[in-house]
Amino acid sequence: xxxxxxETPTLSIEAILAPLPPEVGHKAEPMQLYQAVTxxxxxxxxxxxxxxxxxxxxVAPPDGLGSDAFRAITPMGKxxxxxxxxxxxxxxxxxxxxxxxxxxxxxxxxxxAPEARARARMVVQMTDAYxxxxxxxxxxIAKAEGRSSPAVASGFEGVREGLAALERSIDASxxxxxxxxxxxxxxxxxxxxxxxxxxxxxxxxxxxxxxxPALAGYWSRITAASPVARALxxx
Length: 235
Ligand SMILES: N[C@@H](CCC(=O)N[C@@H](CS)C(=O)NCC(=O)O)C(=O)O
Description:
The chain is mainly α. The chain is built from 10 helices and 4 strands; from the N terminus they run αβαβαββααααααα. It has a 4-stranded mixed β-sheet, with helices on one face. The site of glutathione has 11 residues, from helix 4.
C-alpha cells in the first residue's frame, strides 16, 4: 500500500527494463516560430535552432508585424514568437533561446563553468541594451533628418560606445565566449551583420569596427560557423 492509499501496481522486471518508447520527451508536433527572415532577432533564434538540430515550423505573422491579428497571438506583435507544443506563447528572442537551451540541452549553447555561462548571457544582454537599442532607432532618425544629420552622428556615438563595451567583453577566440558556439554568438553575430551590412549605406559609417580589433577578428571568423552561415544566408 502506498501513502495515498491506492494499491501499488506490480511491474514485471521486463517492463521496468524495456526501452522507453521513442516519443517520451519528444513530442511529435513541431513548435511554430513566427518570424521574418530579415529580423536580426529571428536570426538569433534560427542560429540556436540550427545549432541544436531542432525542426520548427516557420510561420509568417498574420497581417504583418505589429498587426492586431498578430498582437492577438503575441503581446507586442513582434517576431520572433515561439509557440511551444503545449500551446505556450513565448516572445523575446533571448528568452526563446534560453527556453530552447533548457528544453533541448544538447548540444549545449552555454559553456559549462557558471562564470562563463554568465558571461555568455552578459554578451546577449549587452548586445540588446548597448547595440540594438542604440542602432535600430537610427534608421528612423536618418529617414526623418537625413543620414548626415547631427542626430545621426550623436546617435552613432552611442553605438560606438556599445561596440567598445562588447569589444572588452568577448574572448579572443573563434567564439564570443569559450571555445564553442553559445547564446552569445547567436546574439552578437546578427548584430555585427546588421552593422557591417547597413551602417555605411544608411549612416555613412564605413569604419565602425576599425577601433574594435577583437570584434573585427571575431566577425571575420564567426561567419564560418555553419548555423550562423545558414541563418544569415537565408536573409
Ligand atoms: N526585444 C525583441 C525585439 C523584437 C523586434 O523588435 N522585432 C521586430 C523585427 S526586427 C518586430 O517584430 N517589429 C514589429 C513591430 O515593432 O511592430 C526580441 O529580442 O525578440
